[in-house]
Amino acid sequence: MTPRKHIRLDLADLRADLDAIAGWIQPGERVLDLGCGDGLLLRRLMDEKQVIGYGIEKDPAGVLACLKSGVNVIQVNLERGLAGFEDGAFDHVIMSLSLQMIQNTVGLLKELLRVGREAVVSFPNFGYYTHRQAILKGRMPVSESLPYQWFDTPNVRFFTIADFEALCQEQGIAILETIALDNGERVTEDINFLADTAIYRLGRL
Amino acid sequence: MNDVISGSVGLVCPQTFHCADPLPLKSGALLPEFSLVYETYGTLNSDASNAVLVCHALSGNHHVAGYTDAADIDGTTGWWDNLVGPGKPLDTNKFFVVGVNNLGGCYGSSGPNTKHPKTGKLYGADFPVVTVEDWVASQARLADHLGVQSWAAVVGGSLGGMQALQWTLSYPDRLQHAVVVASAPKLTAQNIAFNEVARQAILTDPEFYGGHYYEQGVVPARGLKLARMLGHITYLSDDQMAEKFGRSLKDGALKYSYETDFQIESYLRYQGEKFSGYFDANTYLLTTKALDYFDPAESTGGNLDAALAGAKADFLLVAFTTDWRFSPERSREIMTALVHNGRRVSYAEIDSVHGHDSFLMDDAQYHAVLRTYFEEVVL
Lengths: 205, 379
Hints:
The structure holds two protein chains of two kinds.
Chain A: H1 11-24, E1 30-34, H2 40-49, E2 52-56, H3 60-68, E3 73-74, E4 90-96, H4 105-115, E5 116-124, H5 129-136, H6 161-171, E6 173-182, E7 185-187, H7 191-194, E8 197-204
Parallel strand pairs in A: 1-2, 1-4, 2-3, 4-5
Antiparallel strand pairs in A: 5-8, 6-7, 6-8
Chain B: E1 15-19, E2 23-24, E3 30-31, E4 34-41, E5 51-55, E6 84-85, E7 90-91, E8 96-100, H1 132-146, E9 151-157, H2 159-170, E10 175-181, H3 189-203, H4 213-216, H5 221-235, H6 238-244, H7 263-278, H8 281-293, H9 304-307, E11 314-320, H10 328-340, E12 345-350, H11 364-376
Parallel strand pairs in B: 5-8, 5-9, 6-7, 9-10, 10-11, 11-12
Antiparallel strand pairs in B: 1-4, 2-3, 4-8
């Protein structure tokens, strides 16, 4: 499945997600953005933070859009991992709102933290209260952060903030910082219930 | 100019650059003087910032675009005419494009089938073995002659891509962009093996005469034909060959003899015959050796990251999914090495059925990638 993120996602969430990620990147860093789409985030990081940035994108239209914006784009399939890139090649490896579209979750998380000093990962929270309400009513959730019907979703992994944090603990992945959002606004309490999107800064333990 | 067909650079005429200064070669030999045949398309701008060099592959030449005979446009069209011209991806309204026949070639540049300046006899096998580095050094002399201090881009596919890559290492300050298509940082053992079989076909042809066949009034056509047939197999993909020929028969029925049964046999024989009629065997030998020898990481203990550390150009790399002669993996090796060096690089992997030959084809996504990249080149 080709990650096709950002297409139907709520703009406020997207903007808040990119704002949060940009806030964690220091000027001049080396950054790799996995599933970079049209290169919007990298273009911004190049302009605002003068990063040396590379995007990975499988979709041919995304590749052309990146070239058009002067963003370095690398057309490879993420399911193959990041073979060839040396350990610690990047300061930050970013995976914005597409972890849920990848089969090999643990393998890819390990790859992020192999080639990156730190990783930045964001995903829609399946445990968000409207999603729980939908399930209680017997239907799969469809929302601004999970905008797909069950039969045409590009998502292949469905997990909550609590699930993700448990996996990090189990895999020895350090959670360095968390930003939880509800419709683009910060949430600080009971985030697994109240946040539709979570953004993590991750490191090696 | 009303006979110029749309999108074509039109009727073109090759020029010759003669360099009287000796060229030291990587082998240690010295070429006392040399000539390069070249063509140009478009107009060099006032600060000479819009020049693009197109490097050719194994059997290519300086005639990249346009045609050389208005009475036979189809038969004399340049080998990369679908890419180069007004309004085409490498747009001659923006760029001044230069095609050159490499040293050792057989299209007019100094090579085995040209005269040794001292003896007045054809070089034949005495023409020195030249390398990708030597080609690039000779191209730099041509750039000087044309008044081009720095190329906007150096572009090439296959062996041509190796030259573009070598430009970034030999003359890092003399190009802004390197466009390396269907290429590799060095040949694999399998690739060298193919080249060796091709060379043996030529070297063991009774009419080769140690490379001095010109004096005998013959050409080792059989060896050259076999070399080309072998090469041609490796330029196509298995799927494409299956689709194009399958097991279809040339004359409708099996012959139970060693004549041509299958269409693929007929096709290869035809391609081999045609090639041996116009290409020079010594050039083929020399060029396959240049391919085999290319290995910029040789001087850094096999470390490609270190080998490419001196490059300053921005890079576009393109590879094709069904190309098994210069597979996408090989382009990705260049890509990761450039990323590790913090260079600007993009890499497009094009879905194509045409194998290695894809780089010459007019594929929509491939040409869109090149067009977009060249549009963004700032002069």
